[in-house]
Amino acid sequence: MSKTSTLYQHGTLALLVPGLLKGTTTMADFLKHGDTGIGTGEGLDGELVILDGKPYQVNSKGEVNIVNGDFTMPFANANWADYQPLATVENVKMADLSKQILELSRSANTFFSVKVQGTFTDVTTRAVAKSDVPYKTLSETAKQQSVFKRDTVEGTLLGYYSPELFNGAAVGGFHYHFMSDAHDFGGHVLGFAVDQAEVTIQQFDTLEQHLPVSDNDYMQHDFADDEIDKSIEESEK
């Protein structure tokens, strides 16, 4: 099993739906599994973008911080970067870019990551304010979000694609985060257009799924009545 063909995931997106937002891995432990990734902190504390081994957090004020090794997370993805060129794109919007990536990569039935670097326009991101115990559901917590916009910005769009079959374990389809080259703007992506950028891709043949079995709340929760697909659609897509 190659390190670079493995996508590591801690937690599942489904566990966030009923409000299981406790941090169950530390950043220090998580970075043993990759130098690139996305995620969120305990209590949905902002949006994470990990690039070149540096974990950036975009908080609900729009501030970008590098978090320390004690920072905890309920859900995150990571991989060891080995991106390969896919295409150069110009003047393309979010939905069309996603469609082009799927067509060119021919990877709709497996997991992959995309890194798009260049100049973007009309970028809209969000970050959620950290909530405290007792945690509310994902849908309720996500309402406490701040939205940020940039007309033009140079940066990196980091995305992960999961086959729809795995919706719930992750976000079925594309899940994008963004970080500006100046490290002063980013977050979970709600919309964008590309002015000009280079698209690279890294395909995975293995999903290493790590579950928080030491967390009693997770182990005792019954997911049967949670509206997982609906909540993910409202909160993440």
Automatic annotation (TrEMBL):
GO aspect biological process, one term: acetoin biosynthetic process
Taxonomic superkingdom: Bacteria
Pathway given in the UniProt record: Polyol metabolism; (R,R)-butane-2,3-diol biosynthesis; (R,R)-butane-2,3-diol from pyruvate: step 2/3
Reaction equation(s) it catalyzes: (2S)-2-acetolactate + H(+) = (R)-acetoin + CO2
Keywords attached to this entry: Acetoin biosynthesis, Decarboxylase, Lyase
Family recorded in the similarity comment: Belongs to the alpha-acetolactate decarboxylase family.
PANTHER family tied to this protein: ALPHA-ACETOLACTATE DECARBOXYLASE
Protein name, as recorded: Alpha-acetolactate decarboxylase
